[in-house]
Every structure is written in structure tokens, then in C-alpha cells.
Specification:
The chain is mainly α. It is 58% helix and 6% strand. Bound molecules: adenosine-5'-triphosphate and magnesium ion. InterPro entries: aa-tRNA-synth_I_CS (IPR001412), aa-tRNA-synth_Ic (IPR002305), Rossmann-like_a/b/a_fold (IPR014729), Trp-tRNA-ligase (IPR002306), Trp-tRNA_synthetase (IPR050203).
């Protein structure tokens, strides 16, 4: 059975872009594949400690976000979840990968360039992020990686790293392939030229899975649209098209079908309709997450995933250590 691996950063609360682009897919895939999913807290610190004076406060936030992210994934129905930093082999393998990869592979990463300009600089960790992502996947010899299309470049780099290792030491790693969802990338509600993102500054740019009904209504009603007062599914009207995509994903109806229902309708009424659909779809997830956060069993629920990840990681690292000439 092929193995699937994917991860999500605890950089905030899971939003509908993550849900539609990744998590919803994970739940379906785990029935067909041998799967492992990770809350990648080591990735989450690539930017957060970059600001001087951020230390203790961010550490508390990270711990809380990691718990909430894990609880939200459980509430969505994801099984075999573990927390990345609890399996130290990820960092170990990343170092080996960093030493066999040319820097030029990293210099062309568009996400690095975007995040760097948003932060006015970048840590070495942010630059090396794709090497850690390659380690996350290859540590488990995963063949399939369900991600949104914002990860295409990173995954290609993971394949290059695997080929380079195999070329140096003989075949060991499979070349991981992306598994995309059929849906379109969900864009920010404030600026439809950028994707919806957990770490974007504006809370109004994203709808989180744990938002209250009032917050969801408010975010959709205030979502930026163009100056035309009526709606139409037209890909050149990027803000309205994004709203159609969100509604389409949550209703399972194609945008073209929705177009027939809503075309020339008032854009405020359209936004209100979407808000109500999303509120109802997210309600059970929010309630279940709150229940998990209140109980004491969260880490017990994560134990199975951690054990599975830990066993595979230590098995593969033993072989890798021998291969690269480290004493065991
Ligand atoms: P950050 O801003 O901290 O990078 P993020 O929102 O991009 O957060 P990630 O943890 O980097 O979230 O990604 C988790 C998964 O969600 C990945 O598989 C990614 O491809 C997917 N994803 C992220 N944003 C979107 C989006 N706007 N639409 C669809 N899928 C997305
Ligand atoms: Mg991201």
C-alpha cells in the first residue's frame, strides 16, 4: 500500500483554504492509503522568532496553536496525526539533505521570496525550509503528498533531493508525487491576488474553522469585491470568482451551476448566502474541536500517530546513517 504524508504548520488556526485544499482530502485519502499527517511545528518557527524580543510570548502561542491545530485535525476526522518536533529524526535528515543540495535550488523558491519581503528579511531556517519539508516526506519514504498547488515547487525540490541521494548512495527513496485536490486555490478575502494564508497579517483575509457564526458573517460581508453591485462567474473578476469557488467547494456544485442560480444577483445577498452555508458546514468541526480542547485526552489521541511515525523514522534513519558513513 502506498504511503501518504502531509503536514500543516501551527502558524495559526486552520482556515477554509487549508481545509478545502488539504485537510478534507486527507480524510478521504486515509481510507485508501497508509497515511501519516503532521503538525509541523518546526516549520512554524522559520519566521516567528525572527523579530527581536519575540521569544517567550511566541513560545506560549506556538504551544497553544500546536494543540489547537492537532485538535482541529482530529475534529475534521484525520487519523494518525503526530507533532513534528516529537520525532527528532526530521531535523537529522534535514541536515544530511542540506549537505547534498546546492544552494541554487533554494534560491529560486517563490514562497521564500514572498515571505522574505513580507518580513523584511529572513532567517536561515526560512531559506532552508524546503530541505526540512523534503526530510518530512522522505523520512517515511512517502510516495504521495496531498498538498495545495502552492507547494508544487517545494515538492519538486523534494524529488530532486531524493534523486540526488539515490544517485550518490544507490536507490533508497521513492520520488514523491503531489496529490492535488480538484478545487481551486482559495484566495484572501482582502486581496484576491494572494492566497488565503494563516500567517497573513489581516484576520479579515481568512475564515478560520473555529470562527463563530458572527465572525464568519462579518468576514464574508466585508470581503473585498469589485465595484459592480451584481455577481457573475467570470474569472477576470477575481474577488467574485473566489467567492464562487468557496461556495462551490462547500456545496459540491460546479461554479457554472451556481452561476445559473446567482447570476446578476445582488452581491451583498450573495455574500450572506455563502456565509450561512459555510457556518453550517463548519459548525460540527468547531464544536468537536472545542470539546477536544476542554478534555484531557488530546495527547492520548495523538499517541498512535506518534508511535507509528517514531518507529518508521528510527528504522529509516538507522539505514541512512550507515549509508552516509556515520558510526552507529
Ligand atoms: P502559512 O501562511 O503559515 O504558510 P498556510 O495557510 O499557507 O500557512 P500551510 O500550513 O503552509 O498553510 O499549508 C497547509 C496545507 O494547506 C498545504 O497543503 C497547502 O498547500 C494548503 N493550503 C494553504 N493555503 C491554501 C489555500 N489558500 N488554498 C488551498 N490550499 C491551501
Ligand atoms: Mg504556507
Amino acid at each position: 500500500m502506498k504511503r501518504v504524508f502531509s503536514g500543516i504548520q501551527p502558524t495559526g488556526i486552520i482556515h477554509i483554504g487549508n481545509y478545502l485544499g488539504a485537510v478534507k482530502n486527507w480524510v478521504a485519502l486515509q481510507e485508501q492509503y497508509d497515511s501519516l499527517f503532521s503538525v509541523v511545528d518546526m516549520h512554524a518557527i522559520t519566521s516567528s522568532y525572527f523579530q527581536v524580543g519575540s521569544g517567550t510570548h511566541i513560545a506560549e502561542q506556538l504551544k497553544e496553536s500546536t494543540k489547537i491545530t492537532a485538535a482541529t485535525l482530529l475534529a475534521c476526522g484525520v487519523k494518525n496525526i503526530f507533532i513534528q518536533s516529537q520525532v527528532p529524526e526530521h531535523a537529522y535528515l534535514m541536515w544530511i539533505f542540506s549537505c547534498i543540495s546546492p544552494m541554487s535550488w533554494f534560491q529560486i523558491m517563490t514562497q521564500f521570496k514572498e515571505k522574505k519581503s513580507a518580513l523584511n528579511g529572513a532567517s536561515l531556517g526560512l531559506f532552508a525550509y524546503p530541505a526540512l519539508m523534503a526530510a518530512d516526506i522522505l523520512l517515511y519514504k512517502a510516495e504521495l503528498v496531498p498538498v495545495g498547488d502552492d507547494q508544487t515547487q517545494h515538492l519538486e525540490l523534494a524529488r530532486n533531493v531524493a534523486s540526488r541521494y539515490n544517485g550518490l548512495f544507490g536507490d533508497f527513496f521513492p520520488l514523491p508525487q503531489p496529490l492535488y485536490t480538484t478545487g481551486t486555490r482559495i484566495m484572501s478575502l482582502r486581496d484576491a491576488t494572494t492566497k488565503m494564508s494563516k500567517s497573513a497579517k489581516s484576520e479579515m483575509s481568512r475564515v478560520n474553522l473555529l470562527d463563530s457564526p458572527d465572525e464568519i458573517r462579518n468576514k464574508f460581508i466585508k470581503a473585498k469585491t469589485d465595484s459592480e453591485g451584481t455577481v457573475k462567474y467570470d474569472l477576470t473578476r477575481i474577488e467574485v470568482a473566489n467567492l464562487f469557488h468557496i461556495l462551490s467547494e462547500f456545496t459540491g456544485k460546479k461554479p457554472e451551476m451556481l452561476e445559473a442560480e446567482y447570476r446578476w444577483g445582488d452581491s451583498l445577498a450573495f455574500k450572506q448566502t455563502i456565509a450561512e452555508v459555510v457556518i453550517e458546514k463548519l459548525r460540527p468541526i468547531r464544536e468537536k474541536t472545542e470539546e477536544l480542547m476542554k478534555g484531557d485526552n488530546l495527547f492520548e489521541d495523538l499517541e498512535k500517530g506518534r508511535q507509528k511515525a517514531g518507529e518508521l523514522a528510527s528504522l529509516h534513519i538507522k539505514e541512512i546513517k550507515k549509508t552516509v558513513g556515520f558510526t552507529v
